[in-house]
Fold:
Amino acid sequence: MKQPEWLGNTISIGLFAVLAAASWGLNQVLQRARLDSAAVKSEGPNAIIENPRITRSNPQGQALYRLDAARITFNEQADRSVIERPVMVSLDTSRPKTVMQADQAVTTRQQNQVDLEGNVRIQRDPFDGQPAAKITTSRATVLVREEQATTDAPVLVERGLSTLQGVGMRFDQKTQRIEIVSESRMVVPKERRP
Structure:
């Protein structure tokens, strides 16, 4: 009777030892896989997209704006995208068409903040008897969901035949209001009388 008890104990201990060794081995493999995948994610972008055209819609499926670019480099871990030669076009038919362009843009905050750099141009079509407007500056920050653009750099606003220069600007797409922060100089041509 002692022999089967001894045999059973030996088999149980052996099974526990095999299970412990297998568990340790699996743990080591999983840890290495996590370290390897973390190393891959931290190095370089997750995606590079050439000549993209991206359209953003509202919950009802109506197009709000379109983004065209030469290239987008996306890094998910950093929540950052670098966009070369971006062109953003508003598509909301209830507002005047607005086009924003720059040499480069960096998006952060889940693609809500867009920092435009180099030859920034914002052009708005005429609406409700208001002339077309064009804003030029060296850099600007656009908050997409808030539909606002700001800069602390020198800015030139051309509205019809009038020009407005200054340093710093706030542009609200919802209200179509452009505000120069400081050092503003306005030139309004005299009306010609017959």
The mean pLDDT is 79. The chain is about 20% helix and 50% strand. The CA atoms of residues 19 and 25 lie 10 Å apart.
